[in-house]
């Protein structure tokens, strides 16, 4: 139905809203402060591509792509039900697991719509197994690099990148799970720098990257500051939490334990980065088992345990279980504890191959090299497990590493109920 000037009423989650007949549902929802996520949807590609399904809503009890729903009299749409929120989150999780999405290693990090949706939806570890597709990176085009293993096959580039003569530059090749986006090298070479840059911008993820160009530095990227579903000033005002001043003299000291499992110790370095805040913190907490105190075994029950790193060995599992037994509240700190992060890159290969590559096939290994093996050494697990797959975790502090001030505020919130707000941009893995 073409868009007309006729004003009509439709119903979003039981609430009547006014819009123009024929208007796209995503636009109507946006104008009325309802956030429907979208990935393949692109303003001027009409009809909408409808390839990603992250915009799924329900019309008359049936799932449908929100970007393909057109406003007409009497339309009733379900958008924000718990079922649909979870459904859309599952789609985003699937997209993450279908590709090799390791954000800290990706040029598009901070400007990527898929990553922003992951944050927006509170995705931690996807519920589906990673598939780690083996798709070749194509360096042959003149202007761009194609990191095909991150392509979500949204079709934006295929439908919207053309040369001045109107020839397409990208096309789908193969079928089923072998499908990938191929480049017509001859046509791609005719693109200007600006056109190639636009192709990179059109791609909602980090597949099309411009050669000899990098994204902005952290802090200046598209999603560094603004939540993807921007809140109205009124909503922001409602959420504003007054910071409370804590008088240390009135507070009985709480006890904190920390440990680094399979991580790089970066989260602990971040805790030390609290600088002078650390002095404030030790007015109100004392540390028990922790590398900070060098206390190796718990000497008392603790209020909070902060865990850095995931579990890559039987020793990590034993230590983590001991923390669960000994702490009232357990917090996964940083990406390695939350999703395995870089240590989990070995998860796609058998453990024997990991050991062989690490000890026997590195450039520094000589003919005397051995894979260490002794009954006193920790046994390496088949894969690296995030902490919540081993014990119950109560809270998560994302980041790689999370900032010291962020950890400080979370600890204060948990122990002292101070209600400090942690800004959106702090919840980043990249
Ligand atoms: S930034 Fe986006 S494209 Fe890059 S790895 Fe993360 S989710 Fe994938
Ligand atoms: S290369 Fe990018 S724009 Fe093209 S289909 Fe893949 S994800 Fe979409
Ligand atoms: S945004 Fe609707 S299907 Fe992709």
From TrEMBL:
The keyword Membrane does not apply. Its cofactor is [4Fe-4S] cluster. Coiled coil: none annotated. The keyword Iron applies. Residues 83-122 form the 4Fe-4S His(Cys)3-ligated-type domain. Residues 6-83 form the 2Fe-2S ferredoxin-type domain. Keywords: 4Fe-4S, Iron, Iron-sulfur, Metal-binding, Oxidoreductase. InterPro entries: 2Fe-2S_ferredoxin-like_sf (IPR036010), 2Fe-2S_ferredoxin-type (IPR001041), Hydrogenase_assoc-protein (IPR051349), NADH_UbQ_OxRdtase-like_20kDa (IPR006137), NADH_UbQ_OxRdtase_75kDa_su_CS (IPR000283), NADH_UbQ_OxRdtase_ferredoxin (IPR054351), NADH_UbQ_OxRdtase_Gsu_4Fe4S-bd (IPR019574), NiFe_Hase_small_N_sf (IPR037024). PROSITE patterns: 2FE2S_FER_2 (PS51085), 4FE4S_HC3 (PS51839), COMPLEX1_75K_2 (PS00642). SMART domains: NADH-G_4Fe-4S_3. PANTHER family: COENZYME F420-REDUCING HYDROGENASE, GAMMA SUBUNIT, HYDROGENASE SMALL SUBUNIT. This is [NiFe] hydrogenase diaphorase moiety small subunit. It comes from Pontibacter saemangeumensis.
């Amino acid at each position: 139905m073409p868009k007309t000037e006729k004003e009509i009423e439709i119903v979003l989650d039981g609430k009547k809203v006014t819009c123009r007949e024929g208007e796209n549902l995503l636009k109507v929802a946006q104008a009325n402060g309802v956030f429907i996520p979208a990935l393949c949807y692109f303003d001027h590609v009409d009809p909408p591509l409808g390839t990603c399904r992250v915009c799924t809503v329900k019309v008359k009890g049936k799932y449908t792509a929100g970007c393909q729903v057109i406003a007409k009299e009497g339309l009733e749409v379900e958008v924000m039900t718990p079922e649909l929120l979870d459904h859309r989150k599952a789609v985003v999780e699937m997209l993450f697991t279908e590709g090799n999405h390791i954000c800290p290693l990706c040029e598009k990090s901070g400007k990527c719509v898929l990553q922003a949706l992951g944050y927006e939806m509170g995705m931690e570890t996807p519920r589906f197994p990673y598939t780690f597709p083996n798709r070749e990176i194509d360096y042959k085009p003149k202007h761009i690099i194609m990191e095909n293993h991150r392509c979500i096959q949204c079709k934006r580039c295929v439908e919207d990148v053309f040369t001045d003569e109107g020839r397409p530059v990208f096309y789908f090749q193969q079928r089923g799970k072998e499908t990938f986006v191929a480049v017509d090298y001859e046509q791609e070479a005719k693109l200007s720098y600006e056109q190639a840059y636009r192709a990179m911008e059109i791609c909602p993820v980090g597949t099309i990257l411009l050669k000899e160009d990098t994204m902005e530095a952290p802090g200046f990227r598209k999603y560094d500051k603004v939540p993807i579903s921007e809140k109205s000033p009124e909503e922001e005002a409602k959420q504003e939490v007054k910071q409370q001043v804590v008088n240390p003299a009135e507070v009985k000291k709480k006890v904190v334990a920390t440990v680094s499992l399979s991580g790089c110790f970066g989260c602990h370095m971040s805790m030390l980065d609290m600088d002078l805040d650390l002095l404030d913190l030790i007015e109100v907490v004392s540390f028990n088992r922790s590398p900070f105190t060098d206390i190796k075994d718990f000497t008392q029950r603790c209020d909070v345990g902060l865990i850095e790193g995931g579990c890559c060995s039987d020793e990590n599992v034993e230590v983590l279980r001991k923390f669960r037994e000994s702490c009232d509240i357990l917090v996964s700190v940083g990406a390695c504890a939350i999703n395995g992060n870089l240590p989990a890159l070995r998860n796609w290969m058998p453990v024997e191959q990991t050991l062989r590559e690490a000890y026997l096939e590195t450039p520094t290994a000589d003919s005397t090299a051995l894979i260490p093996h002794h009954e006193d050494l920790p046994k390496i697990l088949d894969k690296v497990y995030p902490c919540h797959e081993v014990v119950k975790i109560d809270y998560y502090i994302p980041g790689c590493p999370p900032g010291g001030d962020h950890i400080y505020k979370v600890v204060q919130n948990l122990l002292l109920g101070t209600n400090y707000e942690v800004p959106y941009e702090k919840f980043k893995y990249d």
